[in-house]
# Entry
Amino acid sequence: MPGVPRPCVSHPDLVAFKYPLPHLALSLKRQRRTRIVAIGSSSTAGEGNIVPYPHRLELALRRDSNNYGRMIDVLNRGFGGQEAQDELSRFEPDVIGEAPALVIWQVGTNAVFHDEVYSPDAVGAAIVAGLDWLAGLAMDVVLMDLQYTTAIVKPEKIGRARDILSRIEAAAANRVNVFHRFALMECWCVQDGIPIDELIDPTDNDRLHMSEWATGCVTEALYGAIAGAPPPSV
# Structure
């Protein structure tokens, strides 16, 4: 029907988390104020007139009836054009200094989009180093992978994109959750038949950044993955 927004399909089978989020769960249980840090590039910082996912996630978590009365802040520490190495250099002030219960680290997009600048080996090594650093601290970590947009999946880029995806999975293996944004958006196109143009901000000449609809639905799926994470072991 014209004018009716396309409904979101979150595909929880693709985005569900494997591991508990014990620090987040404990903070929500025992503290009135809970802090989450979102660090990444323009997917995190926001681009154009589209409200980025950290602000939307904050509102979703605050609206959750299980979190009634709690102050939940999602701090946006995105910086357009950066990749894992650059973000790692900001960990001390932008992540660790904020003492969050949860860190959402969005990585990999610029390793594909700016392939002349970032080498896959260096990106992979930076992700491993960052996860090693955070592993010793009292905070949970989620890696968010690439967006599925034209700039990332065109024929000359798709091989590199899948290489970066595999490096993210390898770095995260057996220790942190990955939010599979790429697989979710790919499923929307391939399985659900949604045109890729609907996933892209129509004002973006680079065909890189997500549309209002895609940003909202990715956030909804991320919120579902966080809320549905396995319970911590006692």
